[in-house]
Write a structure and sequence with these properties.
By secondary structure, the chain is an alpha/beta fold. The protein folds into 2 domains: 126 residues, no CATH class; 208 residues, 3-Layer(aba) Sandwich (Rossmann fold). Helices cover 32% and strands 13% of the residues. The chain has a 7-stranded mixed sheet with strand order 3-2-1-4-5-7-6, sandwiched between helices. The protein is globular and about 65 Å long. The structure holds S-adenosylmethionine. S-adenosylmethionine binds next to α3 and β2.
């Protein structure tokens, strides 16, 4: 059932595979066949060094976002994906009003994780068809991460001319609902010079009379997530006084890229420490995990660039052919002997609870993970907004 729903999700208008030449297609096919054969050999025990042990992670991402008591504030989620933002707001004590997400496979993950949440998936989750007036005046925070492909390198950066550009839909929802505050999240590529005019005309201009808007970038690694992952945030407040109370979240952790952070902050774990792998005398943040749904074809790789490959190699971790679970990963050591990642490992590297119910197909689960906001970053942002809105319990 899940498989079927997931496949339907990638028919959604925001997903566009790249066109491949016959030669590229043949190369990809050959790689897939070679890895399937190697997997079969490993499963049949047809090699002496097939297995690596199953390691237990040292990082529990839930420790980075302790559950806070209800703060009396409501949050409505658009473009909810696998739930990165939803987790952060929920754990910061917000009352989850509803999630809207076009991919049914993603909506099923949210419902499985939180059966008590109102989750609209598929056609009923398509934000383009929703009459938002039913929420008018009832929402404290509206948050959403419209698809990033129009602004990401992998998505070709076609901005407003990309049919997947849903930022105008987010703006429509803000104007119809008039939340006290909103958060719009996207890849840091949106904050580059190329999209300056786009931001001005599509976000700032339509909202500036009703909202005081701040734009800034956050890095998940500053909040204890073992991954270099930068995102641009637009946060708007309807009330000037509340806007003035808002502070951009400051790092809770330091890491090797931090400069000028107080030394008394706890250190963000590197990949090896977070996943509980043996010490090899080198550790570092994970390169940004790519989404399994972005790129020339569905993929079970989290590799985002050539420089990322160098970093994975130094870490002794294999970023391709992510396995469905730790047992499967341990039974299928990568050709170069490096540690094979599992979906659960990727959840930890993204700051998700290790048992978040993403499932096969692996590419789809990696799509949800790689598209998401790291929950601990969302949590810290949610707390800053909560303080600015002065809820009774804050
Ligand atoms: C960048 S992801 C959002 C990630 C999410 N904020 C998180 O933290 O996990 C964008 C999501 O928007 C969804 N989406 C795209 N078009 C949509 C539409 N018209 N209505 C609702 N959701 C849509 C995609 O399926 C995708 O899951």
């Amino acid at each position: 059932m899940y498989k079927q729903l997931a496949a339907r999700g990638t028919d959604a208008p925001w997903y566009q595979g790249w066109e491949l030449t016959e030669q590229e297609r043949a190369t990809f096919r050959a790689t897939t066949i070679a890895s399937q054969q190697a997997k079969r050999r490993a499963a049949s025990g047809d090699c002496s060094e097939c297995k690596h042990p199953v390691y237990n992670p040292r990082l529990n991402p839930l420790d980075l976002m302790p559950q806070l008591v209800g703060n009396g504030l409501s949050a409505l989620s658009l473009f909810s994906g696998g739930g990165g933002m939803d987790i952060g707001f929920d754990r910061a004590g917000f009352n989850h009003v509803a999630s809207y997400e076009i991919m049914e496979g993603a909506a099923s993950v949210l419902s499985a994780a939180h059966p008590e949440w109102a989750v609209y998936g598929g056609d009923s989750g398509d934000v383009r068809g929703v009459d938002w007036s039913k929420y008018r005046g009832k929402i404290d925070v509206l948050h959403g991460g419209p698809p990033c492909q129009p602004f990401s390198n992998a998505g070709r950066q076609n901005g407003a001319s990309d049919v997947r550009d849903m930022i105008p839909e987010f703006v429509r929802a803000v104007l119809a609902i008039r939340p006290r505050a909103f958060v719009c999240e996207n890849v840091s590529g949106l904050a580059t010079k190329k999209f300056k005019n786009y931001i001005e005309s599509t976000i700032i201009e339509p909202l500036k009379r009703q909202y005081v808007i701040r734009q800034f970038i956050l890095n998940a690694a500053d909040f204890g997530v073992p991954q270099a992952r930068r995102r641009v945030l637009f946060v708007g407040f309807a009330d000037q006084g509340e806007a003035a109370q808002f502070d951009i979240p400051t790092p809770t952790h330091r890491h090797y890229r931090s400069t000028g952070f107080p030394h008394n902050l706890p250190a963000t774990m590197g990949v090896r420490e977070a996943l509980g792998l043996p010490d090899i005398g080198f550790d570092a943040l994970s390169p940004t995990l790519r989404s399994g749904l972005t790129g020339p074809r569905h993929t079970t790789s989290v590799l985002s660039s050539v420089s990322a490959l160098k970093q994975w190699n130094r870490l002794g971790v294999w970023p391709n052919g992510v396995a469905a679970d730790r047992a499967a990963a341990s039974a299928y050591v990568a050709k170069n002997g490096h540690f094979r990642l599992s979906l659960q490992d990727c959840l930890v590297l993204q700051g998700f609870p290790g048992d978040w119910p993403v499932e096969r197909p692996v590419y789809f689960a990696l799509g949800l993970i790689g598209n998401s906001v790291a929950p601990p970053m969302a949590y810290n942002l949610a707390n800053s907004i909560s303080r600015a809105l002065h809820p009774a319990t804050c």
